[in-house]
Design goal:
The structure holds 2 protein chains of 2 kinds. Chain A is an alpha/beta fold. Helix content of chain A is 34%, strand content 13%. Chain A has 12 helices and 14 strands. Chain A is globular. Chain A starts with a helix and ends in a 12-residue tail after the last helix. Chain B is mainly α. Chain B is built from 25 helices and 4 strands. Chain B has a two-stranded antiparallel ribbon with strand order 1-2. In chain B, strands 3-4 form a two-stranded antiparallel sheet. In chain B, strand 3 (270-272) and strand 4 form a beta hairpin. Chain B is elongated. The two termini of chain B are 38 Å apart. Classes of the chains: A alpha/beta, B mainly alpha. Chains A and B meet through helix 5, strand 9, helix 7 and helix 8 of A and helix 13, helix 21, helix 24 and helix 25 of B.
Chain lengths: 424, 540
């Protein structure tokens, strides 16, 4: 932690010509210009984008087992039939008709699907199950996120190794040592000062603020944590503003919150400021009720959500191609659990267990991985849910080792590598 | 006076001379904070800082004048005021609130959710800022987080426009310091909750577990704490048929109320936590659900779970087990009386101790409301845009999910911290005739609100200067360091703040002339901003 404080202290000693649009810009610009920030702001060529489908995606209506009678028997209202425009992948599975963008990527060989992913003793609480996925620790309640553990395993840590886009920082990126920043948009991720006197008095405020920050801040619990976060915020905000200026794209993203978030990620990638892991999420998958519209199971909440996911991913992938970065980025999706095989009486589905994970990108070895759990009554658990076949930590481990070049055993606290998973 | 001005002019030149001047002209009673950090448990002497601690936790801080009154009247009298709020007349605030005519229902069709959420937020913020029942509002905020229900999933369903979350908010307020078991019974019948956790569709033959699960997991016992999946399924059956009376007309303004529909109820016996519930016929079937609540409250872990959560919120995170079990025992013995539990918490030696002092991180709502009260802003109508709540990470009436919001370190990351700082910039720089360009969170346009007042000067800087006779730079620094931080800054920070006031646009030493309007507008507002940027200002 100390090196970052030293870093900012050095910044305050530097000075250049003043063209600063915002508070504190000057020092950081000078640091970048002098090459001092190189260690901090690298240029990774292996980027991971984690996309969380929050609420528990209905996996059986996402990757449809269209030859399975059990699926149709259990879901008289919700099941999507082959003649309804399913997007066939092989002789067992098809995508939901809303996943057209994802289907294009599948056809181009950019999508790997690991089926039957879960963990022992599945927990059907959103909060607990989400925590389990975020901390990679199903047995005991852990507080450190798996991505935060990854960042700490790096030799050269930095405030911008991981970035969350939109909403709160996920627990996956939080540990006792701190958390990754969350950015709504680059324009709003800036420290502002009184606009009436920015030109005359901004520098004076800057100087006073830096003096305040250089004071000891260790009297109270969390005081150091807050102070460190202030330093990280000022450094990263300026770096991103500069980076945004170098981005331009002809790709038209769909008009959705998720697509906006992925475009922001593209801008940050274009900025080359050393972010290794991006995280963003789309919520609303908790479809207990009205998952589909009565009498029209191809319309409704779930269809809209899948359409958002598919359209945003496709646009983002196209943007990477345009930037020539498609070899550098892998997308991994997950959701805290699947939903129950049997539909409920509210045009919805209740919390279930295992689900598939998608890994998407040019470096991916496309295809099906893992074993789809049986839907036969005798093969379900006592609650009526599917029994997982692949531990999610094996998927994490594979991504950590084979994509990020990390030591997954150290990060996940055990060897979870599974030789049958070779998707990247 | 001439002599002092000369001293200050000299003080701008060397730090040493500043120290000399500081020593000479500091107000009596000023001292450096000497709080020992974190784990040491020393009692706090009753003083300004201790009073600030009490009011930040049991309320939403206070103006310097109010804080002095608290110091003078003592800890016990203040605690009595906070807990025995019934004897304190709050009708002036209620009258003001009524006069403001916050439109809480039905704006135009397209903007109704956002506008209503904004109005609800302003309505509640106004209460937090102005109510004399400060602990009641603080407890209501706690319960809103505990029984987290979002207007997003509740209001305006199927064309109904009743502000059900407002009804729930009043229910929480009426039980805030009452009896916890009664509150849970009331929440089980709360229409917003019935919508929120899908109990409308919890019917015989097709039970929906959502409410039953959260009743145990989040509201009473704690996750996985002594119940099974089977208990949840059985409890869900007991609550079948718990629903609401639909409005007579689609655009009806009447508020939905609880209703039990026997024809949707499962009358077969249920076994919850080892106890069998046998249904009474007809409308008496409603007793099944009530019995579930009674059975839950026979479990000792309920008191432990709630006590620990209250302690975490009001004192410090991760309370020692022996403290929780001791307080929980009293809570159970009292039949779940919240007022006596809260008294035990506030009177516990750890509450008024160094271990609790500034040991929490302010939630965004605490952060905002406290700034309003400390700077005597009073009117929340313009500044806290809905989008700003989003940037800070806590949107009243719109919690992220039924688990509620985070706490402490979870509130702070570089994004939310920038949002907090920029919110402070808005608060301090927003003034007549100036667009503060408060670009935070989403960029949704402001909605013109009926009844919302257009007061542009958020902080009455000139009024504060005049009333407190702030003549010199040092007085200005002292006043705002005290108002916002009860002197919890280092001596060097005071120097830096004073230097800021004594520096001109050219970066060279300059006189600080309190008579000069531009100086006041620029420098005093700037100073308030800088004081509030202290990392410690984020700590509760």
């Amino acid at each position: 932690m100390h090196h970052r404080r030293d870093f900012l202290k050095k910044l305050t000693m530097l000075s250049t010509a003043l063209t600063a649009p915002t508070f504190l810009v000057r020092g950081v610009k000078a640091a970048k210009a002098s090459g001092m920030a190189q260690a901090q702001l690298g240029n990774p060529n292996r980027i991971l984008l984690v996309l969380e489908l929050a609420g528990g995606d209905d996996g059986l209506n996402t990757l449809i087992p269209y030859r399975n009678d059990r699926y149709y028997a259990a879901r008289p209202t919700l099941a999507i039939r082959p003649e309804q425009g399913i997007l066939t992948l092989d002789d067992e599975f098809a995508f939901h008709p809303a996943l057209t963008g994802l289907k294009e990527l599948w056809d181009e060989g950019k999508v790997a699907i690991t089926r039957g992913v879960g963990y022992p003793n599945p927990n059907r609480s959103h909060f607990r199950s989400r925590d389990i996925w975020h901390t990679a620790e199903p047995e005991t309640v852990a507080s450190d996120g798996w991505l935060a553990n990854y960042f700490e395993s790096l030799q050269e840590s930095g405030s911008l190794r991981g970035v969350n886009i939109g909403g709160r920082v996920p627990r996956a990126m939080v540990s006792e040592e701190g958390s990754s920043p969350s950015i709504q948009s680059i324009a709003t991720y800036q420290l502002q000062t009184d606009p009436r006197y920015a030109a005359q008095d901004g520098d004076n405020k800057n100087a006073a603020f830096q003096e305040i920050l250089s004071q000891p801040h260790n009297r109270f619990r969390f005081e150091e944590y807050v102070t460190q976060t202030v330093l990280d915020a000022t450094v990263s905000s300026v770096a991103l503003l500069e980076g945004q200026e170098s981005y331009s794209s002809s790709v038209e993203y769909p008009n959705s919150a998720l697509a906006n978030n992925l475009r922001t990620i593209a801008q940050i990638i274009a900025a080359d400021i050393g972010v290794t892991v991006f995280y963003t999420s789309i919520s609303g998958f908790d479809t207990h009720a009205n998952q589909v519209v009565a009498g029209s199971n191809l319309t409704g909440i779930h269809t809209n959500l899948l359409g958002d996911v598919s359209g945003a991913i496709k646009a983002f992938y196209d943007d990477m191609v345009e930037m020539g970065r498609e070899q550098d980025v892998v997308i991994m999706t997950f959701t805290e659990f699947g939903r129950r095989l049997n539909e409920n009486g509210s045009l919805g589905t209740d919390h279930g267990t295992s689900n598939q994970m998608f890994v998407i990108g040019d470096p991916v070895n496309a295809g099906m991985y893992g074993v789809q759990p049986s839907l036969d009554p005798g093969s379900l658990d006592p609650v009526g849910d599917m029994i997982y076949s692949v531990d999610f930590r094996s998927v994490y481990a594979h991504v950590l080792n084979n994509w990020l070049g990390a030591d997954s055993a150290e990060i996940l606290g055990g060897d979870w590598l599974d030789p049958t998973l070779t998707f990247v | 006076m001439r002599k002092l001005i000369l001293f200050i002019a000299i003080a701008a030149i060397t730090a040493f001379s500043v120290a000399v001047v500081e020593a000479q002209i500091r107000q009596p009673g000023w001292r450096l904070p000497e709080r020992e950090p974190r784990e040491q448990i020393e009692p706090l002497p009753w003083d300004l800082q201790a009073a600030g601690h009490l009011l930040r936790r049991a309320g939403f801080s206070a103006s310097p004048g109010e804080l002095q009154r608290i110091v003078d009247q003592g800890f016990e009298a203040t605690l009595d005021e906070l807990l025995d709020f019934e004897s304190i007349d709050d009708s002036a605030m209620e009258a003001q609130l009524a006069e403001r005519e916050y439109s809480l229902v039905r704006l135009n069709q397209n903007e109704r959710l956002r506008a209503n959420a904004q109005n609800l937020q302003r309505w509640w913020l106004y209460r937090m800022i102005h109510s004399r029942h400060q602990l009641v509002e603080k407890m209501t905020l706690f319960w809103h987080d505990h029984f987290a229900t979002s207007a997003q999933g509740v209001n305006f369903v199927n064309g109904r426009e009743e502000p059900l979350v407002l009804v729930q908010n009043q229910t929480l307020r009426s039980h805030a310091l009452g009896n916890f078991k009664e509150m849970v019974h009331a929440i089980a019948r709360d229409p917003a909750m019935i919508y929120w956790l899908d109990n409308l569709t919890n019917v015989v033959g097709e039970p929906n577990e959502n409410w039953a699960r959260e009743l145990m997991e989040l509201f009473t016992m704690g996750e996985g704490n002594g119940y099974t999946e089977f208990d949840i399924q059985e409890a869900a059956r007991a609550f079948t048929g718990w629903s609401v009376v639909p409005p007579r007309r689609r655009d009806s303004a009447e508020v939905l109320t609880f209703a039990f529909y026997p024809q949707r109820h499962d009358f077969e016996p249920k076994t919850v936590l080892g106890q069998t519930i046998v249904s009474q016929p007809g409308s008496e079937g409603v007793l099944d659900g009530e019995q579930v609540v009674e059975i839950i409250f026979e479990q000792p872990q309920v008191a432990e779970f709630i006590t620990a959560k209250l302690w975490d919120f009001f004192v410090y995170a991760e309370p020692p087990e022996e403290i929780v079990s001791q307080l929980a025992e009293g809570f159970r013995d009292s039949g779940y009386d919240l007022k006596s539990l809260m008294r035990s918490i506030f009177e516990h030696p750890h509450f008024m101790s160094t271990k609790a002092y500034r040991a929490k991180i302010k939630s965004p709502v605490e952060f905002m409301v406290q700034a309003f009260r400390e700077l005597e802003v009073g009117d929340p109508d313009n500044i806290p845009r809905l989008s700003q709540f989003l940037g800070l990470g806590q949107n009243l009436f719109l919690p992220p999910d039924v688990g509620g919001w985070t706490s402490d370190a979870g509130w702070i990351n570089t994004g939310t911290l920038l949002a907090r700082y920029n919110w402070l910039n808005c608060l301090t720089s927003n003034r007549e005739g100036l667009d503060p360009r408060c670009v935070l969170g989403s960029e949704a346009p402001e909605i013109e609100l009926p009844g919302a007042r257009r007061i542009r000067d958020q902080i009455d800087v000139a009024g504060i200067i005049q009333e407190n006779q702030l003549l010199f730079a040092v007085n200005v620094v002292d006043y705002f360091v005290r108002a916002l931080l009860q002197d919890d800054v280092t001596l060097d920070t005071r120097y830096a703040l004073e230097q800021y006031l004594l520096t001109g646009d050219d970066g060279l030493p300059a006189e600080f002339d309190i008579e000069n309007e531009v100086t006041v507008d620029k420098k005093v507002r700037g100073l308030i901003y800088l004081v509030s940027l202290q990392p410690a200002y984020q700590l509760n």
